[in-house]
Amino acid sequence: MEQFHINKKNIFTFGILFVSLIVIYLLVLFLSASLPSEKIRKNIKESVQIINDQRDWIDPIAFRSHDDKHGPLTINIGSDALMMNVIYNIDSESPLKSILLNRFSGKYDFYDCMPNLIATVNEDAPIEYIYGRYWHGYIAIWRPLFVFFNYLELRTLNFFVFSLLVFLLVICTAKKTGYFTALALSLSLVYINFWCIPMAFQYLSVFYLAVISSLIIMIFNIQKESSYLKLFFIIASLTAFLDFLTVPLITFGIPFIFVLIKHENYIKKQSFKQIFGLLFKFGLFWTLGFILTWLMKIIIVSITDMDVISESIRQLHYRVNGAEASFLEVRYVAIYRNLKAMFFEINPWQTLFILIFVVSTWFLFRKKEKFSPVFYIYIILSIIPYLWYSLASEHSIMHCSFTYRLQMITILGLLLAYRDSVDMVKIKEKIKKILIK
What we know:
Elements: H1 8-33, H2 38-52, E1 58-59, E2 66-67, E3 71-72, E4 75-76, H3 78-88, H4 95-101, E5 103-106, H5 113-121, E6 127-130, H6 139-145, H7 151-177, H8 179-191, H9 201-219, H10 225-242, H11 250-262, H12 264-267, H13 272-303, H14 309-321, H15 327-345, H16 348-365, H17 373-391, H18 393-398, H19 400-403, H20 408-421, H21 424-436
Helix pairs in contact: 1-4, 1-6, 1-10, 3-5, 7-8, 7-9, 8-20, 9-10, 9-11, 10-13, 11-20, 13-17, 15-17, 17-20
């Protein structure tokens, strides 16, 4: 892999790339907001009626789990209701103002998303809220689609498209890297209940980005480090543009693992310092893409004389530290709740079986020689979700019904570390003997 070097030319290239992305974001949002609202509002009204006909606003197609504080960890479509509310309130006569301020309306608290949407479509929403600290990039995708489809139809469409992409990624992984890696990927997808992801708009963007970028990495012959850094910068920027801060690091961790898998022969010849340097560079460019894009929205909105900076700082502080618990307590609870949801609430017996198998075979068949440096990189990657839970602690407690999915990186990283540290030939021979008997 041809290495990247920081110089004036490369800094200028990334600067042009960033400015181009911001211009594209504003353009596609403007064009989407300029669409006539009549059919869009009609389909959103129809969507509210469909949702109302259900028993409640928590989707029944969900995973089996329970949280003592927040109740059943099922698919909550509250954020979807907020997204539809923002789309409904876009004024096609003032598209630029609409995409910058991201207004929505209601008659209840800011976070009573579904009741507020019902009040909005019933023209009984006297309160106007402004939600300008996010890009709300989903507007560019969902608003045009609401011209043709209602919410239920969009969920069905998403289910088939997302499932197809996941299937293609698993098949591509099996063909190019072997069955164990494909099995590890499949297991990590099962653990996050990937079939639930298309059922809620709020989950979709980061997983679409992770799967599509991983497919790009596996299919295209990318050999330059600079090309990968541009790809990760764009992925991160799109994450900030589209996502509601669900599990953004999925768009870093999963694609980076696929870079390691794709270039396994090259990676295994590198020292730990060199591979860690690669991880650091990719992480740095992803972080820059994410933070700069998010900050740019706040700066643009602030120019319109709306003070979103103080609100963003207040929300950031709350997402990190919470309001009541001590520094250590809130971080412990965040990690505990997400670990519990992923491994012990949803799949307790599967987790026990896999844990016993992996630990026992690791002790019996681990390689005698020194582990390769990439083994330790996979271990580091598997820890990333818990660093995020420690950083965004209150957010990870409030929203553990979806933040637990960040541990997809943990499962995939640990299984690949396992593969790299055991004698797979001996394990296969042992399994064959047991099956023959």
